[in-house]
UniProtKB/TrEMBL annotation:
UniProt key word Signal: yes
UniProtKB keywords: Signal
Signal sequence region: 1-23
Species assigned in the record: Solirubrobacter pauli
Name of this protein: NMT1/THI5 like protein
Record Gene3D superfamilies: Periplasmic binding protein-like II (3.40.190.10)
Residue ranges annotated for the SsuA/THI5-like domain, each copy included: 90-128
Keyword presence, Signal: yes
InterPro entries: SsuA/THI5
């Protein structure tokens, strides 16, 4: 093959998507709060157990930077709340409103992966803690374990399902509901 054709072949492969990941929606950066807490357990458990990949996304948690998905207590402008982590709105998942409009299926997949991660973290707190400390090795395991015992019940307290939010300005309550219903 002539060397001049190699760049053309590379462009064709990129256009066909062959350089992307094997998941349907690809890598999904998600920004977590700056401080490591037990409320992060479901995110790390979702990636540890590959619930994210099972839903067609690859969650990439980080504590800094900019991303279309954020777990936060105060959503920035243009970030629509789609799921409660600590209800009713102490800690929420929000997504860039353009992504929500343009790629709702991806947003539902992220929410579903997180629902699975948090639900299993409630059932298997020791495993969830192990998943967290594997990804955040400098985390205080004893402090997180004590915190997880208190935090996990609050994730679903008084809620019909994990992630349920009330309707309102800057919120889309249908996303968490649709993700929950997709689980059957």
């Amino acid at each position: 093959m002539p060397r001049a054709l190699i760049p053309l072949l590379a462009l064709i492969l990129v256009a066909c998507g062959s350089t992307q990941t094997t998941s349907q929606f690809g890598e999904v950066p998600i920004v977590l709060p700056p401080r490591v807490t037990a409320d992060d357990a479901g995110v790390y458990f979702a990636t540890y157990r590959t619930y994210d990949e099972g839903e067609g996304v690859e969650l990439e948690p980080s504590r800094e930077g900019d991303a279309d998905f954020r777990i936060t207590a105060t959503p920035p402008s243009g970030c629509t709340v789609v799921m409660a982590i600590v209800p009713p709105a102490k800690l929420v998942l929000c997504v860039d409103e353009v992504i929500l409009q343009d790629d709702r299926a991806k947003v539902v997949a992220v929410v579903r992966a997180l629902q699975r991660g948090y639900e299993q973290a409630q059932k298997e707190p020791e495993e969830a803690l192990s998943a967290m400390t594997q990804e955040v090795p400098d985390a205080d395991t004893d402090a997180l374990a004590a915190e997880l015992d208190d935090a996990a019940p609050a994730w679903t307290a008084g809620q019909p399902y994990f992630g349920a939010i009330e309707r309102g300005a800057g919120r889309d309550s249908s996303v968490a509901r649709d993700a929950h219903e997709a689980a059957g």
